[in-house]
Amino acid sequence: IAGITQAPTSQILAAGRRMTLRCTQDMRHNAMYWYRQDLGLGLRLIHYSNTAGTTGKGEVPDGYSVSRANTDDFPLTLASAVPSQTSVYFCASSDVGGTNSPLHFGNGTRLTVT
Amino acid sequence: GQNIDQPTEMTATEGAIVQINCTYQTSGFNGLFWYQQHAGEAPTFLSYNVLDGLEEKGRFSSFLSRSKGYSYLLLKELQMKDSASYLCAVGDSNYQLIWGAGTKLIIKP
After folding, report:
1. Angstrom distances, CA of residue B73 to CA of B24, B49, B68
2. Of A32, A95, A99, A104, which to mutate for an interface test with B (greatest number of B Cβ within 10 Å)?
3. Of A27, A3, A2, A1, whose CA–CA distance to A107 is shortest?
4. Section B68-82 average pLDDT
5. Chain A to chain B, count of Cβ pairs less than 8 Å apart?
6. Are the beta carbons of B41 and A104 separated by less than 8 Å?
7. A2-to-A7, A99, B38, B46, B102 alpha-carbon distances in Å
8. Mind listing the pLDDT tens digit for each residue in A21-74?
9. B45, B97, B101 member nearest A99 (Cβ)
10. CB–CB of A23/A75 below 8 Å?
């Protein structure tokens, strides 16, 4: 089934540890995104990539890094986790970058930093 | 600053009609999206408006007035499975999506 796969589904992480959230899509979409979703707030963009080999910063990029070595994969790394990074993380993709193409979301990773 | 306002929660009866409003103040406008998100699941795309007027898609319709910074999502013939959060998102002048916090819709029998 075509779509976006995120791993892990959930994770409990000690503060100060490094963690990579994985995201893979098989729709050959050009653009990919990482969002975090916190209770009472709208989705907030962390980083994005409009095409393989390029990345950009979103609204809340501090403490996170991404890479886009190929079309399908867009991992998100927390270099040294802090409790404020406890959240649900969604990876998404769209046919093209910008705001004219709907987003397809993965099922999310629920991360708890203790 | 940029802002999207939606009611936090609404309740409606099965079989009825409900209208979920969204008002926005953004730097520029490049499209408005509505997404549905069931509890514990990913958001899924419902509708896209870029021109003023009503877009109808089955039981769901979405309306946009750019001059008023206003949109609504209309759900007809409500079913229990429509219980979910509905997210409004607007593209700004930098072609970034600004998201509302979502409206939790509760459907009662």
Report:
1. 14, 11, 15
2. A99
3. A3
4. 98
5. 56
6. no
7. 16, 22, 20, 19, 27
8. 999 999 999 999 999 999 989 899 999 999 999 999 999 999 999 999 999 999
9. B97
10. yes
